[in-house]
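User: Round two. Same drill as before: sequence, then structure, for each protein.

Assistant: Same drill it is. First protein:
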Amino acid sequence: MFERALVGIFLFGLMVSVSGAESPRNLGTDRHVFIDRRMVDVLSNAELTVNPPDREELVLIADKPWESGGITSYGNVLWDPEAKEYKLYYVPVSWDAEPGYCTALATSKDGIHWEKPNLGQVEWNGSKENNIVVWAQREGTVVIDPSAPPDKRFALVSSAPEVGTQLFTSPDGIDFTLQEGQLSPHQSDSQISTFWDDRIGKWAHYFKVYEGEDGWHTDSKVEVSKTIPYPQDEPLGRSVGRVVTEKLSDPWKE
């Protein structure tokens, strides 16, 4: 009798526990980054851990005259299947020129050993013997557009003061040409991160704008969202924005 009572209490408690539990969330086929426990129901013999990176030797050093001010944190790496090499686009700073920054190119066959080729594209201090691809541009990302014609296979989405956000194209990732018009009259306050979003079949652009700047809106081609990451009494001086476009040449603001 006593054992039956215990079993009854256990079953009753189990029913209460199950009835009070949250229903499973439909995560679909999307990828989710587990940065907290909100989407983890039960955790056993495991813990959330940030894996520390392994620090290896330096792969890129500021050793050129146009790099006298160092190399900034802006840059991106991509694999060029036609040239069969990695291309690293980075931003050197020069104390001896105005405005003193540009987008330069380093190449590698293995992603470890990098070279700075003399490209002969942009004149600096009277010479084109350098690896600069675009002068006075520092806040952009270079991508390969598979749907573009061969002469525009590479694209640089970048911004600069007083000129807004612009599009440069290139057949080889070296010889870039500025396209007519602006993608946006606004300048990003940090590097623009551009990539193809497979989930929605569009190009996504992340950027940083000054809080309170007017003009961002949503229309048939462009979707815009601005977020402030941390609530506080005073609004942040800058905010993160996201724009999606069907084509890289689509304007961000009409």
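Second protein:
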Amino acid sequence: MNHELMIFGVVLAIFAYLVGIKKATWLLAGYNQKRVADQEKLATSVGLTYALSALWLLIWGLVGVANSELVASIAVGLILLQLVYVQMKMVG
């Protein structure tokens, strides 16, 4: 069991809940809320990405993978891809 991955996964799960369910888009860095036309779509999209990343980290944290840096890098890469997608498609 890898505790660092699990803690990171729990933190991301909390952010996924706050952004995806509670629509707390003010927590997101790198987005100009005034330039995003559809705040609902932004919250749903980012919340889903955070939830998938959290699930990824929690599963591999429970399994106890030896290369935790690679697992965390994949999760961070997914979040960065989401950031690029939002900047290209949702910001007007």
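The two ends are 44 Å apart (CA to CA).

User: Perfect.
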